[in-house]
Amino acid sequence: MSRRASLGGAAALLGAPSLASAQASARTLRFIPQANLASIDPVWSTAVVVRNHGLMVYDLLYGLGADYQVRPQMAEGHEIGVDGLTWTISLREGLKFHDNEPVRARDCVASILRWSKRDVLGSRLVALGEEVSAPDDRTIRIRLKKPWPGLAWALGKPSANICAIMPERVARTDPFTQITDPTGSGPFRFRRDLFRPGDVAVYERFEGYVPRSEPTDFLAGAKPVHFDRVEWRIMPDPATAGAALQNNEADWWETPLPDLLPLLRRNRDIEIGVVNPAGNLGVLRFNFLHPPFNDVAVRRALLPAVDQRAFMDAAIGTDAGLSVVPAGVFTPGTPLANGAGLEALSGPRDLEAARAALRASSYAGQRVVMMSATDLPVLQNLSEVAADLLRRVGFNVDFPAMDWGTQIQRRTNRNPVEQGGWSVFCTTWEGLDVSVPGSHQPLRGNGAQAWSGWPTMPRLEALREQWFDAPDQAAAQRVAQEIQRVAWDEVPFIPLGLVRPPQAWRRSITGVVRGGSSLFWGVRRA
Quick one: average pLDDT of 365-388? Predict the structure, then answer.
């Protein structure tokens, strides 16, 4: 996040330090996002703020409902061949890009191919795809080497990287190069000419957007827009952002600090709520390449001592509505969440049992480097609790402070701690990412290609493949239960609970919770 700024109609007002409420148009929504919009390419970037930008500007072939099932969005529907190998997807009529060119199937094909080079599920399409083609302007044909029942989920998932549909000319951009042309077909048009990174981003309602006829259902169904303009105003300081909301200089704050919630709640003009119930799953991640956490017995030793409630209270406060425990390896409240072996974290906590297990392991007092990002309060608070827990169990903990950017760089270092490496860190994963095995990076066990920590766990990889092949939800749930049982045995990470960050908005803005997202369709001013 960067400096506070506000936006008026003339260029001179872009540099003004504030905007009086009398100047605010009833048709303009003023929003304080969670971070600076450093990229405008939701295929190139995995940042949540870029994902949110992408879901405003672009549409997807499928949309996720509140029940976490995908439904046709840009697609009118699809047919699957009897052998499960051929998907024929038809586009609905009336789709247009922001330059008023029609959306054609070849645009979708180019977009799918670009996305497939960057996304964890897209890579499966690369491996299984025999053909992705456009027989005509409204038909997409995908031929596979083996059936993949979850293809629609992959194309419609709202978690990074999203399969944003772009014009063919844009989608032909190398997937490892950021796009510069923001033309999409979503409900909002991005004003690239008014974009000032670290300051302000402007979106205008796209008059040519034709919503679906069904009711709004989370990220599926209709996307009606009731504002002519949405202004993202980047504010680096939480106190400044809170004051802007209270003084009617902003309408909506995406990430209010828990410490400021009591003050905001005392303002009768402000409402607090959880917009995204999938939240963020806290995780304790290990380095599997070096002692001590290359020994599974050392990782298991921690399980009896982890108190998820203590982690959540530190991360987000004691308001029970802002966190969920117990949490297994899948996002609580989503279809694959289950209780298999969950007593490993939900049963009585036993610090002495953890100490005894550590003494019986190979741990020999090695220095354990616990990384911590001091500029991200939730992660810093999780890390403080984790470092204290490690010390109490018996680890020799080194707890260096660093900013998030430094931690991101350091966690790519595969060397021992004596050569600048690391041992363990805390982070959070967006709940939608870790709700299914396909996009659940902390569960991957594919060695050098795995997420930071680089575990090699063939059993988890085999179960992931079984999930892909599951013919129905019941079969998928059985696989998910077995994955969780194996996770308690292998300990690729330890779930710390689900953080459900609150958002704050002025009561004059209605429809926020019903809309189910911070993407501004279905939202209006009272």
Answer: 94
CA distance 28 to 33: 15
CA 282 to chain centre: 12
Instruction: Detail the DSSP E strand segments found in 237-361.
Output: 252-253, 270-273, 280-286, 323-324
Treating both helix axes as pointing N-terminal to C-terminal, what angle do 351-359 and 377-393 enclose, rounded to 10 degrees? 70
DSSP readout, 404-448? HHHHHHHTT--S-GGGT--SEEEEEEETTGGGSGGG-GGG--BGG
Q: How many CA atoms lie within 13 A of 429 on its CB side?
A: 27
Q: Which residues pair with 273 in a beta bridge?
A: 503
Element (H, E) at 464: helix 458-469
Average pLDDT value for the chain: 92
User: What is the dihedral sign for C-alpha 450, 427, 492, 340?
Assistant: negative
What is the phi-psi region of residue 126: left when phi exceeds 0, alpha when psi lies from -120 to 50, beta otherwise? alpha
Grouping H, G, I as helix, E, B as strand and the rest as coil, residue 77 is strand
Q: For residue 40, what are its two tokens? A: 């405008």
Q: Amino acid letter at 250?
A: A
User: Helix axis angle, 377-393 relative to 308-316, nearest 10°?
Assistant: 150
In Å, how far are 18, 196, 249, 375, 462 from 23, measured between CA atoms?
10, 21, 10, 34, 59
- State the amino acid at position 67 in one-letter form: D
pLDDT digits (tens, 9 = 90+) for 377-423: 899 999 999 999 999 999 999 999 999 889 989 999 999 999 999 99
Whole-prediction pTM: 0.87
pLDDT value of residue 522: 86
Using CA atoms, how far residue 142 sits from 80, 162, 164, 167, 175, in Å, is 10, 18, 17, 19, 20
Distance separating alpha carbons of residues 164 and 74, to the nearest angstrom:
11
Rounded-to-integer distance, Cα 325 and Cα 73, Å:
33
Query: Are 492 and 442 a contacting pair, CB within 8 Å?
Result: yes
Region 435-449: mean pLDDT is 95
Give the whole-angstrom CA distance, residue 118 versus residue 175: 7
DSSP 233-253: E----HHHHHHHHHTTS-SEE
Tell me which residue of 46, 131, 138 sits closest to 81, measured CA to CA. 131
